[in-house]
Amino acid sequence: MLIQFSTSIKTTLVLLLFTMGGLNLYADISPTYLLQNDTITTVKPAIPQAGAFVIPENARKATINFQVNSGISYFSFDHFVKSESKQIFYLAWQKQKEVSRLSVQTDSLRKSYADSSDDQKEKISTQILKAEQQLMALNEEIPFLYEKVRNGENQYWQSASADEKTKFLEKIKLYQDSIRQMATLRNKQLFQDTITYYKAEPKPVANTEPATAIIYKIQVGAFKGKLPDTAAKSIKKLSMLRKVESYKDEKGVSVYTTGSLKNYQDAVTLQGQVKLEGIKNATIAVYNNGKRITLDEARKLNNEPAKP
Q: Which CATH architecture fits 212-308?
């Protein structure tokens, strides 16, 4: 009799707990109830603690290239000094990936459109229009997010001491050195099983000046204050065809560029293409390790012939 009564109590409690569990089904944090030896034990789940934004594991080791100002650039998520800036950058970074995905999808749809029947063309054109609308919305939002990040980080470095800036730049150099070493190691591993038929004599290494990183870009606009409507439309149109980047220089001017080339002739070719795409005042801008320099300086550093 006593056993049956105890069993009845357990059954009643289980039904009660089932009902309580159903009431908590849609709650974000619900307690867990355990029945042990006719005793109800409440186990509280761990509550996530608010704190600094943590980059997801799959993106933590990603290499980035984000210019804060003319003297400071970030190449890793660990280089951000403000948690809020890191979180906003990650959001913009993810949206940039979505832009790449949508661009590939749109190009594929355009190719399919040409070879499709009239019925299919109507469906495909709707898909293309939807993708283009998404691209336009993303291309409007992403620069705003990057600018917000840049302003927040630049504000910090404007008030930082010279010693802190020096230590940070040393940290950046060590990071870039480690990336280069890893790349060299990977290249060696790719050829470690190669059969060697002869061993070449080592050649003397001549002393050379520190390597430079000359990058040619096409400047499509530079504005202080609000972006003019006509320029905004032109840049938005170009961003549908090419990746457009922007940064704010030390004078507070917002500079918009496209392309990333290693020699002057390629830059001239791209400049002509960009002009045909609607940016009539497109000019060539050159950067050495992120710092803007003149065309003459770049051509000398690259050992390119002078302009005719």
A: 2-Layer Sandwich (3.30)
